[in-house]
Sequence to fold (203 residues):
Amino acid sequence: LLVTVILLGIAEVILRTQGFGGEAVLYVSDPAVGYYTAPNQKLGRYGGRVETNKFGMRAPAYSVEKPPGTFRILMLGDSTLYGGSYVDQDGLYARLLEKKLNELPGLPGKVEVLNLGVPGANLGTHVRMYRIARETLAADAVVIADLANADTGVPSLTTSLRGHVTVEVELRALRAPLHSGMWGGVVPDPAAALCRLLAGLWD
Fold:
């Protein structure tokens, strides 16, 4: 029994050093955008660092006012941009992009890449964040990073989108199936009617 307890203790220590069972990433509810990662967090998860600045971004401590001569890129996206708890802070592609851009020769100034990725975010979240953050943070360019690559190892850039729409459909019907000559046959079932509607949504 003692040996089992010791082995379990050693296993727990090893797992905790790798970020398992440690602190959880916290989120803040927000009426404007829904939710975002809580500001000023610093913790280890699954062997990687998760750090957020005062805006809740997994990014360095940027100032609200853009420094003179700086080109500021605002990136909006979901968990792929956020990185998840498995990706170390320096491995986020917003950080890698900023590093690569600033290594380019002949730039007139510094480039900042602000990471506003939120796990589970959708286009509605991006639009609301864009409206709030673009003017507040004086972004020169906005990139929506919420689409898949064409293939593994093939970077892809979408330059335009066809749009996005959310529709709420409500169907009303009788409480039970009904067949009567007065109705001219079987009264449409709500599930069958919905299937026909969805089947017609093609481009």
About this structure: The mean pLDDT is 78. The CA atoms of residues 42 and 51 lie 4 Å apart.
